Amino acid sequence: MNFFKQFNQFLLMGARAHAKWELDISNTILRDKKRIGMLCLLLIPILLGGIAFAEDVAGIMPHMLGGKTAYTPAFYTPTIFFASIGVGLVAGLITGCIGAGGGFIIAPALMSAGVKGILAVGTDLFHIFAKAIMGSVLHRKLGNISVALAAVFLIGSMGGATLGGWINRTIYEANPILSDAFITTIYVVMLGFLCSYALYDWYSSTRPAKQAASIDPAVHAAGTLTGLAQKLQSVNLPPMITFDEGVIPGGRKISWLFLVLAGALVGLAAAIMGVGGGFLTFPIFVYMLGVSSATTVGTDIFQIIFTAGYAGLGQYAIYGFIFYTLAMGMLLGSLVGIQVGSLVTKVVSGQTICALYAIATSAGFINRAFALPPKLAKMGYIDMSKDTGKMLDMVGNTIFFAVLGAFALWVFYIFFSNIRTLKGEGPKTVLRAKEATA
Q: How many CA atoms within 13 Å lie on the side-chain side of 92?
């Protein structure tokens, strides 16, 4: 039981670290006129190209790009584009308001809307890469990046991303339904862990006396290592990579092998799930490898750009599995959503945020769990009538979109009803607002 609590906490800390990265990137883009201009320039050819050449491109591009069926990066309808903005908006609201988990609902939401799993994964990766490259703040983070650590890690992440992309494409070429079932299963397992711990975390927050001690990443900045990190750093398998020279006199050392293996795991997860890999990098670096939290943050930003870029472009784009208009719509929506969500955290209680995270991850888990049996039935693995399968799909999608819709409406209600407080009427007003919302 203790292992599962630690593992779930491990994933949750990673999701929170990735959410912080999302917020930093969003702030960087929206506060820079040049980056906003770049975003507009990226949108113009995509939108005009889709409007002018939708029908022609739909028949030509898939063959040019090597896609198995008629998926094209430029073809779209206004409904699809605005729906993608909605998906990005809700994901941004969850990330900003809860501080974790928003990226995990993008692929399930796209799949629930009828997008093939492999296309949802590729599109999500491109969306992450576009956001990372536009919001890059490496010039402010250079002091926190261990170049040697990042370089060796990226060797593994590129290899893992190559394997993950190959697995997804091979399964899809063999059977598109099996591909959807495979990606759905991965999300069922991952969201199952996250929502179970989120529910436990929320329950613990209602009973302070029995609340379990949580892992504090800040202690690693002071030099404390986990037992696993101490064991791994004690293994002398050259070449040894030195890092954290600014944290510990002389720095720390770890074998290249563990960095490559860690990178391979992150790259594999990124390419299969379409989540960038950042949610795994933070807990692996801090708790398993013993890297300080300061170095981890800088290196994580660095690796996301290259891992998501290589996985998205090298493993999906050249095979026709990225829907660019969807990606840009999600980028637009998420930039707005994450700003609103982060402001709302100032006027809601921590206990409320725990409850919202539990609800959001549970909705994603239910959605994918209900979608899996009909897919298995289509392949003949289980007996189920078509009507039963359709009913399960409908129930899962209804719960999912109803919960996300209600969540979005609630966040916007809190935002607009507390607009004066959020403009800065003073700490006493913020405190009263939190007490009223709790």
A: 28
**Mean pLDDT, each 10-residue run in order, the chain (438 residues):** 60 68 74 72 57 44 41 55 84 76 79 86 86 62 69 92 94 91 91 78 66 46 70 90 80 91 91 76 82 76 82 87 82 85 78 78 89 90 90 92 88 85 57 46
Question: Phi-psi bin for 286: left (phi > 0), alpha (psi -120 to 50), beta?
Answer: alpha
Angstrom distance (rounded) from CA 182 to CA 371:
11
Neighbours of 69 (CB within 10 A): 10
Strand partners, 243: 252
Taking the whole predicted model, whether its pTM rises above 0.85 is answered as: no
CA-nearest of 100, 131, 152, 158 to 282 is: 100
- Report the SS3 class of residue 414: helix
What 3-state DSSP class applies to 243?
strand
Distance CA 315, CA 164 (A): 8
d(CA 23, CA 20): 5
The Cα–Cα gap between 110 and 104 comes to: 11
Number of domains in the chain: 1
Helices and strands counted in the chain (H then E): 18, 2
Longest dimension (CA), the chain: 66
Boundaries of domain holding 166: 2-437
Across-strand partners of 240?
Answer: 255
Q: Which two tokens stand for residue 251?
A: 């720095």
